[in-house]
Amino acid sequence: MTTITLEVPDEVSEQLEHHKHQLTELLVRSLKQPPLAAEVYRYVLDFIANRPTPEQISAFGPTPEMIERRRELVAKERINAITPAEKAELDEYDRIEHLMVMIKTRNLPFLTGKP
User: Considering the domain boundaries, does residue 98 fall inside one?
Assistant: First the structure.
């Protein structure tokens, strides 16, 4: 087992003192967190769960906040100032965007009436 020494602010140290028996578990859990905030996934899942019409699928897109966040991440990537966590976040936005493109492509026959 490896020992790690961290410098943390006093108020964090006080909180950690109360949870010192759980530190390894807390660290492991934090490393397994999804790269995007839960509300991003919830936004897409809620949309799909509400059985959208072909027209709603065609019109579906990210929120203004999602668009702005992705722009920020792309700008950071362009100047090589992106952190590994931010890169993972950008990659996840790209995966969701790709998934929505595939869903919209599969939706085209319903819009055109041509199977």
Answer: yes
